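For the sake of transparency, this paper describes our internal protein records without simplification. Because each token names a local backbone shape, the row as a whole describes the fold. One such record is reproduced below, unchanged from the form in which we store it.
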Amino acid sequence: MKFITAFVLWATISYVSIVILDTFLTGESRWLAYIPSAVGSSIGISIAQKSNIRLSF
């Protein structure tokens, strides 16, 4: 359950930050286009954390 919560949280944070950044840089929001990229990055982070690779931010 903790793993799923962390996954959803990371996906949401990365998705929102990508959309905000793109809207700021280009002046238009293509929010649907970023769902795969946010999910992909959160899967990558989750796998890395499961593999005992410590990530420091």
